[in-house]
Automatic annotation (TrEMBL):
Pfam families: ANTAR (PF03861). This is ANTAR domain-containing protein. InterPro entries: ANTAR, GAF-like_dom_sf, WH-like_DNA-bd_sf. One of its GO terms (molecular function) is RNA binding. Keywords: Transcription, Transcription regulation. It comes from Nocardia pseudobrasiliensis.
Length: 255
């Protein structure tokens, strides 16, 4: 049964043309086409406690993945940390609890409905998580749930390299090298570039620069990718405060 799900997923993936889509988007497209789900997203764990959205299919999935990546909260990060799938029958109801307070305040999530986050891990190596939205069948049917786990396992295998450079792997298994399927999307590369630019502007570490980017995005109605695009285009810059430790005031670039 699991083999059938794997075969179906790989067949769909093979039929999916790139047409400008990133590798992560193609993996998500194959999930939506081979499983009874409406949307999908893949998020990877990065060094320094950051998260990176590898790809998403569906506007809600994309915004949900962005919110989880920014806040570090949600069923996806929990699935990654605990190493077990997190299934949510009604996310809107769950969001009103104290389980994920920052995520609940991230007002760009929208209505999710049913959701399932599956960790992408192989033994001690933890890559991130797969979000599946519109998963009523996954929650109610043990066979479909098993198939979703099988697909997540295939994605994990595809993202992993041959692991010949184990000495470079972090002790906690995060941030390991990825095969071509793990190539960052254009928006992810832009976020990387924006973080570097903010680090230069503030003369701070990459971790601190990422925190500033997230903090600013939290005050807006936009996504990390949207704000990063403004930073890269020099429409937005983060000047340092004259007083150490003061809250930095973000101003548009005058150029």
């Amino acid at each position: 049964m699991g083999n059938a799900a794997t075969t179906r997923f790989l067949a769909v993936l093979n039929e999916t043309e790139s047409n400008g889509a990133s590798s992560g988007q193609r993996l998500c497209q194959a999930c939506v086409r081979s499983l009874p789900v409406s949307e999908a997203a893949i998020t990877l764990a990065m060094p320094g406690g950051r998260w990176e959205v590898l790809g998403a299919v569906g506007e809600t999935a994309a915004r949900f993945a962005d919110a989880q990546a920014a806040t570090g909260e949600g069923p996806g990060p929990d699935a990654h940390r605990f190493g077990t799938p997190i299934r949510v029958a009604d996310f809107a109801q769950e969001a009103h609890s104290d389980r994920w307070p920052l995520l609940a305040q991230w007002n760009r999530v929208g209505v999710i409905g049913s959701e399932c986050s599956i960790p992408l891990r192989l033994g001690a190596f933890r890559l991130g998580f797969l979000d599946l939205l519109g998963v009523e069948s996954v929650l109610s049917d043990a066979v479909v749930y098993s198939e979703a786990l099988q697909v997540a396992g295939v994605i994990t295998t595809m993202l992993l390299t041959d692991l010949t450079a184990l000495s470079d792997v972090r002790a906690d298994g995060d941030g390991i090298a990825l095969a071509p399927w793990g190539e960052p999307s254009a928006s992810a590369r832009e976020i990387h570039q924006a973080i570097g630019m903010i680090a230069v502007q503030l003369d701070c570490t990459v971790t601190a620069a990422y925190a500033r980017l997230v903090g600013y995005t939290f005050t807006t109605e936009r996504t990390l990718a949207d704000v990063a695009a403004d930073v890269v285009a020099r429409r937005l810059r983060f000047p340092p405060d004259p007083e150490p430790g003061a809250l930095r005031r973000h101003q548009p670039d005058p150029t």
